[in-house]
Write a structure and sequence with these properties.
This protein has 121 residues and is an alpha+beta fold. The chain has helices spanning 2-23, 114-117, and strands at 30-36, 42-46, 52-53, 63-69, 72-77, 82-89, 92-97, 107-112. It has a single domain (26-117), classed as Lipocalin. It has an 8-stranded antiparallel β-sheet.
Length: 121
């Protein structure tokens, strides 16, 4: 009976460890295509230091930072306000913007460019 308990306990611990590791997939810094609502996708660069450069992306002009929380990607404005939370969906990340006083909520899709995808996304 003791061996059965040890076996079951060890099996449960290993199963939980495997699930946690699978959910915490590493997100690679690099270039991504960001589609906001119906706007044309634009190039966004997410740097390994947590900064984000949206260049001429009019659909998301205030995004300045990003962070990974488990499998979720958080995009934040330059002032630290959360802009969007994105969850993995296939090879991309999707989510919605957080509404602010002057805007509506939009659907976002963040897709790696071929160079970023080659890094192991």
């Amino acid at each position: 009976m003791t061996n059965l308990r040890r076996f079951l306990t060890l099996s449960a611990v290993l199963s939980l460890s495997a699930i946690s590791a699978a959910q915490a997939e590493t997100f690679n810094a690099g270039e991504y295509k960001l589609a906001v609502g119906n706007a044309a996708p634009c190039t966004v660069t997410l740097s390994s230091d947590g900064s984000a450069s949206v260049g001429a992306c009019a659909a998301a002009p205030n995004v300045g930072h990003w962070q990974q929380h488990g499998s979720t990607i958080q995009l934040s404005k330059g002032n630290g306000e959360v802009y969007a939370l994105l969850k993995p969906k296939g090879d991309a990340y999707t989510g919605t913007t957080f509404p602010s006083n002057d805007s509506m909520t939009h659907t976002l899709t963040l897709t790696p460019t071929p160079q970023t995808a080659a890094l192991g996304h």
